[in-house]
Amino acid sequence: MAYSWADDDDQTLQHDSKTLKYMPLYELNSNFNQQYRPNVSYHYNEQVSHFHYGVRHPMKPFRLMLTDHLVIGYKLHEHMDLYKPRRATRSELLEFHSEDYIDFLSSITPDQSALKSYADTLAKFNIGDDCPVFDGMYDYASIYAGASLDATRKLINGQSDIAINWSGGLHHAKKFEPSGFCYVNDIVLSILNLLRYYPRVLYIDIDLHHGDGVQEAFYTTDRVLTCSFHKYDGKFFPATGNLDETGIGKGKNFAINVPLRDGVDDESYIRLFKSIMEPLINQFNPSVIVQQCGADSLGCDRLGRFNLNIKAHGECVNFIKSFGIPMLVVGGGGYTPRNVSRLWCYETSLLTNVKLNSKLPENLAFRNWFKPDYSLHPNLKGDNLQNQNDRKFLENLKITVLEQLRFLNGAPSCSMNEIPPDLQGFTKDDEEAFYEKLKEQDFNDKFIDGEARDKKIMKDEARIGELME
Ligand code: V1D
Ligand code: CA
């Protein structure tokens, strides 16, 4: 019988109605002792979930609160270091974005944007239906970017092997403008920071949409290899990411695109993903990986027409983890909040080596969002959605990409000659002083201990109690 990526195949955590309340929420994986057991950190500033793009807009930051409730409800905080990161500063944002764009972003208000006199400025900065001006927009952007940067600092100073920021992953933002719901590009900012210490960065993007902003930012360098899997038909947003976009100059062949059609299913996606990523990682030999885990590639997404189940998406993340390379994991798109939060909670469990009971915790806040099944793994495969990627199409994709990999000629031995400008000319002493400062900064970051976290949960529940009355 074929493996089911949807429902609960796990016998060890099964229960009947009488024993339900005694069932553990999770168990450690059976091969726990032999497995790669990375130090995992979780970077989350809950303020990020309070912003609203607008009632009709599909991007709902609220999904991040649902995710956090699931993560905490399953007690995954017992397996990670938790940080409440500070916002990114203006000067941190300027590492990638232009000054006039950041000035605009930090000064425009919804009231002003309603005025006709601003029409030209709004058009200049691509403000419109996809990227509206909303209350607190700049705060929102600096909070999610701050969390990704915080995560990179933990990787750089060796405190974390895997650092997670589900509020990040906004891969479309450009140097001079927002794009596709993304205001600042936390991924580009993070990669720039990682490049100060790591010779080669691999960027993997499994969001439904092409990771165009990240690809564009590193299109001419061989120190960052970008690889995006996405829907492509020449029209679907952002209408880039065909096979022939491969990089230019020194970056030739260091951009990889896997353009797919609607309806791709679990088996075909996983097979294709693994058959490309394994040789790619062996060839490029990255020193650090950034993985964007957009949830709009799941079945039943409000904007997407892929057909993946949560376990299949997770299988890709787990496969990359199995290489044991330091990794920044970020979110991205995802427009059916209940499934976004299920997915990112499940992926947190994979990264922390914890096996979750499929039945959602009884005392979960917002549990009614997950009815009627209350399961972590509802079947998301739409039976009426045909897989328009037939075997031949997928085989051709694989062959073309593997052919491109042959041109990589091994990993570039990096002389670090493309170090971001502010670190050029660093002496050993400078570098040590810098590390000391980093450590100090870590200490000042709000590290959330178990007790503080428990208090926070009690507070959240009280608030929900009030809401329900
Ligand atoms: F359906 C909508 C309703 C309101 C506002 C916007 C949309 C919408 C849906 N899809 N907008 C889109 C995409 N834009 C366009 C352009 C509008 N022009 C006329 C064409 O099709 C943008 C999709 C953005 C996807 C973002 C992402 O999922 O990749 C993401 N990743 O990280 C964060 C977000
Ligand atoms: Ca993608």
UniProtKB/TrEMBL annotation:
Domain (Histone deacetylase) ranges: 57-349
Superkingdom per UniProt: Eukaryota
Pfam families the UniProt entry points to: Hist_deacetyl
Gene3D superfamilies reported in the protein's UniProt record: Histone deacetylase domain (3.40.800.20)
Positions of the catalytic residues: 172 (proton acceptor)
List of residues binding substrate: 130, 180, 335
Cellular-component GO terms for this entry: cytoplasm; heterochromatin; nuclear periphery; Rpd3L-Expanded complex; Set3 complex
InterPro entries, alphabetized: HDAC_I/II, HDACs, His_deacetylse_dom, His_deacetylse_dom_sf, Ureohydrolase_dom_sf
Reactions catalysed: N(6)-acetyl-L-lysyl-[histone] + H2O = L-lysyl-[histone] + acetate
Residues reported in the UniProt entry to bind a divalent metal cation: 207, 209, 296
Example GO BP: negative regulation of meiotic nuclear division
EC number per UniProt: 3.5.1.98
Keyword vocabulary terms for this entry: Chromatin regulator, Hydrolase, Metal-binding, Nucleus, Transcription, Transcription regulation
GO MF annotation: an example: metal ion binding
Cell compartments where the protein resides: Nucleus
Family that this chain belongs to: Belongs to the histone deacetylase family. HD Type 1 subfamily.
Protein name (record): Histone deacetylase
